[in-house]
From TrEMBL:
A single BP term in Gene Ontology: hypoxanthine salvage
Keyword Metal-binding: yes
Keyword Hydrolase on entry: yes
One MF annotation (Gene Ontology) recorded for this entry: adenine deaminase activity
Organism: Pseudomassariella vexata
Pfam families associated with the record: A_deaminase
Top-level taxonomic group: Eukaryota
Essential cofactor(s): Zn(2+)
Domain Adenosine deaminase: 11-349
Designated name of the protein: Putative adenosine deaminase
Alphabetical UniProt keywords: Hydrolase, Metal-binding
GO cellular component, one term: cytosol
Lineage: Eukaryota, Fungi, Dikarya, Ascomycota, Pezizomycotina
Length: 349
């Protein structure tokens, strides 16, 4: 699906993109050599090819067929990131790409816990991303507020420890201002959102926002959405939900999202890898027609066939039969759902 000039020119905002999921094969190749990190691929072509596989294996459900799962592939990529400069370059490459797509403001996720076990200090990661945040704003005019994800299939205490280490870089009184929210990512099998309640409460006491992944068609997906709407954050619910598409099957979840004003950050191409066009896009259209607020995002573009946020929006434009004013409304939703400060929001609207 070719990106229309309309979608290309539309001023955009992206709220669901994992910075590690924007690592290009070329940067990965360069960093592997610079840092002497062995790659499981002998040639650049083999590395490129590894990004092209439709990763849809869930060992817990399908058994271990020997092929890496999506998340194993994604976390394998993080191995080449070692030095502050590496994190900076990853951030800058993405912000440059954002500018090239007319994306004005982004809230990228980062997985601090992917690096700490390798002995990389939190400061190395966070200073690298923070330099990209500042320089990306100055050089490309792309503002960003970042989101620290808890890795939900690791022990809760490790997530809390990572949060404590990251705290000086939070956007709070006396903080450095890199990240303004916490999220919840990685494998959600038997890892419901409420497990991380302590983490959300800490973050909220610090004045940060809270979002969490409830990925599509996972085991207990709708129950996870239910928890994210009604149970977490002391029963107030999350402030956004990442994915959450399974709400479409349950009227009480649709009502809960609307009553509580919780928006979904949908990533249509991520679902399109597993669901047929005629199954997937009517669900997105139904949420739209029901008045559930959502915005359109890429998730892990380099690991998902290089479909970036513009490509994701094009899919919705085309397959949900949206008109131009719908697309403008979608772009406005991402501004309204963002946690940019009020002045910046006004500029973006
Ligand atoms: C992710 Cl596709 C997906 N699911 C869960 N966690 C993630 N982190 C990055 N991509
Ligand atoms: Zn995601």
């Amino acid at each position: 699906l070719e990106i229309s000039s309309f979608v290309a020119a539309l001023p955009k905002v992206e709220l669901h993109v994992h910075i590690e999921g924007t690592l290009t094969p070329s940067l990965r190749w360069k960093l592997a050599h610079r840092n002497n990190v062995p790659l499981p691929y002998l040639t650049y072509e083999a590395l490129l090819e590894s990004y092209n596989v439709l990763y849809n294996h869930r060992k817990e459900v399908n058994g271990d067929n020997g092929a890496p799962t999506f998340l194993e592939t994604y976390f394998a990529g993080t191995q080449v990131l070692c030095k502050e400069e590496d994190f900076y370059e990853l951030g800058m490459e993405y912000l440059q790409k954002a500018k090239d797509m007319n994306v004005r403001y982004v809230e990228p996720f980062f997985d601090l816990q992917a690096y700490l076990p390798r002995g990389i200090p939190a400061a190395t990661v966070l200073n690298g991303y923070m330099r990209a945040q500042r320089e990306g704003a100055a050089k490309f005019g792309v503002q960003s507020n970042w989101i620290m994800c808890f890795i939900r299939d690791e022990p809760v205490e490790e997530g809390i420890a990572a949060y404590k280490a990251a705290r000086p870089w939070a956007k709070m009184e006396g903080g450095k201002g890199l990240f303004h929210a916490v999220g919840l990512a990685s494998n959600e099998y038997d890892r419901p959102p409420l497990l991380f309640e302590t983490g959300y409460e800490m973050a909220q006491r610090d004045g940060l926002y809270v979002t969490m992944h409830c990925d599509v068609d996972q085991k207990d997906a709708a129950d996870h959405v239910h928890e994210a709407i009604f149970s977490v954050c002391g029963g107030k619910g999350a402030q956004r939900i990442d994915h959450g598409l399974n709400a479409v099957d349950r009227p009480e979840l649709i009502a809960g999202l609307k009553d509580r004003g919780i928006g979904l950050t949908l990533c249509p191409h991520a679902y399109h890898r597993r669901q047929k066009t005629e199954v997937l896009f009517p669900k997105i259209r139904k949420l739209w027609d029901e008045g559930v607020k959502f915005c359109i995002n890429s998730d892990d573009p380099t690991y998902m066939h290089n479909i970036w946020v513009d490509g994701a929006m094009e899919k919705v434009y085309h397959y949900c039969e949206m008109d131009k004013s719908d697309m403008v409304k979608l772009a406005r939703n991402s501004v309204e759902m963002s946690w940019a400060d009020e002045k910046l929001k006004e500029e973006l609207l």
